[in-house]
Each structure stands twice: as C-alpha cells, then as structure tokens.
Amino acid sequence: MLLDTLLAVRRRSEALIAPLEPEDLMLQGMPDASPPKWHLGHTTWFFDTFVLQPHAPGHQACDPLWSYQFNSYYEAVGARHPRPQRGLLSRPAIAEVLAWRQRVDAGLEALLQDPPEGVTALVELGLQHEQQHQELLLMDLLDGFHRQPLEPIYNPEAELSLPMAPVKWLPCHGGLTEIGHQGDKFHFDNETPQHRVWLEPFELSNSLVSNAAYAAFITDGGYQRPELWMSEGWALVQEHQWQAPRYWRGDTTEFTLAGRRGRDPQAPVRHLSWFEADAYARWSGGRLPTEEEWEHAYGLHGSAMQNAHRVLWQWTASAYSPYPGFRPVEGAIGEYNGKFMSSQMVLRGSSWLTPKGHERDSYRNFFPPASRWMASGIRLAR
Ligand SMILES: [Fe+2]
Q1: Based on CB atoms within 10 Å of each CB, which residue in 170, 253, 291, 309 is the most buried?
Q2: Do 250 and 262 form a contact (C-beta atoms < 8 A)?
Q3: Could you tell me where in the chain the CATH 1.20.120 domains are found?
Q4: Torsion angle of the four alpha carbons 89, 91, 95, 101, in this order, in degrees rounded to the nearest 10
Q5: How far apart are CA 67 and CA 53, in angstroms?
Q6: 70 alpha carbon to ligand 1 midpoint, in Å?
Q7: Three-class SS of residue 366?
Q8: Ligand 1 centre from 312 Cα, in Å?
Q9: Of 206, 128, 199, which is closest to residue 166 (Cα–Cα)?
Q10: For position 217, what pLDDT does the model report?
Q11: Confidence band (pLDDT; 50, 70, 90) for 156?
C-alpha cells in the first residue's frame, strides 16, 4: 500500500516535467525558486540520504558531490551548493538524475519488503516531502515562465477557474477550542502538539476575495495609500513598484501555467504577498483570520466554508511559531520544519497545485510575508 503510493508519487514528479523542453529543466527565475531538474534530484537525495543510507545495508550512497548539489538546507548533512545558483547546474544531466531515481526507487522497493523499525515513517515523510516539491516545482516554473517574452505555456489545461460565491459571513462563537493535528495519520511535526486556545467571537467569509473585489481596492488607490499598509509592506510597494498581484498583466489578463489568459473577475485573486492581503483586508473593513480561527471555523462549518482546500492557500494573521510544547525530532530530520519558525507567516488550506491527498485541515504552510509566487489568496475575517 505504502509502496504503491510511493511509486505513484515518484512517477507523478517525472510526469510533471514531461511537457518541458530540455532548456526548461535548468530554469531558475530567482534565488527563491529552483529548477525542475533540481527538484527531481533533491527529492531523490532525500530518500537516498535519510532512508537508504542509514537503513538499507549494501546501498551505494550517491556521489558526495551530488549530495553537495542536492542538499537543500540540512546543516547536519554538510555543506551545499548555494541555492541562488541552482540554475547553473547543467550536470548531472537529466538522464543521470532519472537513472538515479530508478536506483533509489528499486532500493526503496526492496527495503519496504521487510522494513526495519522507523523506516515506514521515514518513507512516508519522503513521500510527503516529494509532494511538497511537486507544488514548488509548478510555482517555480510559473515564476520562470512569466519572465519570458514568449510567454511559454506549460499546460493549457493547468488552470484554475472557479467563480467565487457572493460573500456570506459564517458566525463562530469562539470560546475554548482544540487546535492541531489529532489521530495517527501522517502529519508534519509542526502541526502538533494539539493544544487549547481561547477564541473571541468572530465571523469568517465563506469564500475567497475575487479579482473584481481586489480590482476595486486598486481603483480606490490601494497601492498609493500608506495608511492601509504595514510599514514593511509599504516600503516594498515603493521599492518594487507593486501595483497589482504578481501575475496580472494590464487590465484584463494574467499570466498562468496555461500562458496568458483573460482574467475572470469572479475568480479568486491570487499570487499576492501577505502585505497585500493584509492591506486589502484593512481597506475592506475586515482582517485576516488567525490560523486558529481558520482551523476552528472549518471544523465548525465544514463545506459551508467554501474553497478551504484545493483552490488557493489562504494567508492568516498568524506568525509561524511553534505550538506550545513543540520539540523538533533529534537529528538532521529535525531541521525539516522547526528551524524556520521565525519571520514567516502561516497560510492555511491548500491550492489547486497541491497534489491530491496531500492537503490536511491542520496543515501549516509558511512563507516570508513578502513572497508572492506561491498560489496564495485571501479569506477575510471580522
Ligand atoms: Fe526539500
């Protein structure tokens, strides 16, 4: 069962690069993004380093220089190639990376016939990690393609088109509630421990903010009015001359994985920073929900809270910090989430780029507040 899921996830990563040209595989539009080939290598390095090397006797570890190239941020594993320069890595060639993937898959398949203690959990983590990178690959590719005059089309089908329902406010009475992952199904360490929080009464919008609503904010001088912005966000507006969400082009189109497309006024606005989401919320008379409010409201209202999943990640007012009692696991794997709990904001839900089955109600996605290239949107609270 785990093996079947694992192999399906591994095949999907390879299917994601099928529409690409060889040159696209090295495309790195900015230091925050990584080339598709690097994502395929790095996810394989993860299994090689954390599953096969410690647990599969006789496994031949990858070349130390490959480890140097494909280590992302694990200090315990050693030095690594600078992230902003991943686009320089023309070698190993994609054929070598794909052959490595096959060797690692074969090793995992053999190991899972009679897995030593703890290995199943590590494989599951590697599988979920690879799913995270599938979404990263797509958002990084969108960034890389949007910088090109020829406006490449990744996949004409790969588009989100979903009109938002008229806003209805969902009442939440607040009080003492439990937050965090419960049960023994897979979850990341940062979703625990489950703990109690006190919530004041609030209301949450049943839908996401639409392009038309966001356009009204722009028309009303949203990007010219410092009183709507956090100081740090206002400085970014000046520095980068932000005037609209990242992929809007002119008054009527936006750049997407399906190329340049007409902008549906009723579709949810997307690809904006936390600062833009926060400024919009202030302009509208509302605010962003905390992550606890988001999770509580979804538990309370379920599907009436529309588009909670599989549309856009939703910025929250919550800083990404440890839940009370959180302890990262010992060793290199403890670097997975815990060491990033500063200077980032939490997004909840999932997006249309999130692999199916990867989403979870207690999922805590996180990005620096200036980031705009992920599939982010806005749900309001008041
Ligand atoms: Fe990673």
Answers
A1: 291
A2: no
A3: 2-146
A4: -70
A5: 12
A6: 9
A7: strand
A8: 21
A9: 206
A10: 98
A11: confident
How far, in Å, is the centroid of ligand 1 from the Cα of 45? 9
- pLDDT computed for residue 282 by the predictor: 98
pLDDT digits (tens, 9 = 90+) for 47-57: 999 999 999 99
Work out the average pLDDT over 366-376: 98
Query: Residue 158: is its pLDDT beyond 90?
Result: no
**378 class by beta-carbon count within 10 Å (0-12 exposed, 13-18 middle, 19+ buried):** buried
Give yes or no for a contact between 144 and 33, defined as CB atoms under 8 angstroms apart.
yes
Cα gap 252→107, rounded to integer Å: 51
Q: Average model confidence (pLDDT) for the chain?
A: 96
pLDDT of residue 331: 87
Separation of 372 CA from ligand 1 center, angstroms?
A: 19
169-377 folds as: paralog of FGE (formylglycine-generating enzyme) (3.90.1580)
Kindly provide the residue ranges of all beta strands, DSSP E only, lying in 218-276, ordered along the sequence.
248-249, 253-256, 259-262
- State in Å: Cα 330 to ligand 1 middle: 18
Q: Which fold would CATH assign to domain 2-146?
A: Four Helix Bundle (Hemerythrin (Met), subunit A) (1.20.120)
* pTM (global) more than 0.85: yes
Report how far residue 312's alpha carbon sits from residue 325's, in angstroms, rounded to the nearest whole number: 30
Mean pLDDT of 176-205: 97
CA angle 173, 179, 184 (to 5 degrees): 140
Q: C-alpha 352: how far from its chain's center?
A: 11
Distance 169 CA to ligand 1 centre (A): 38
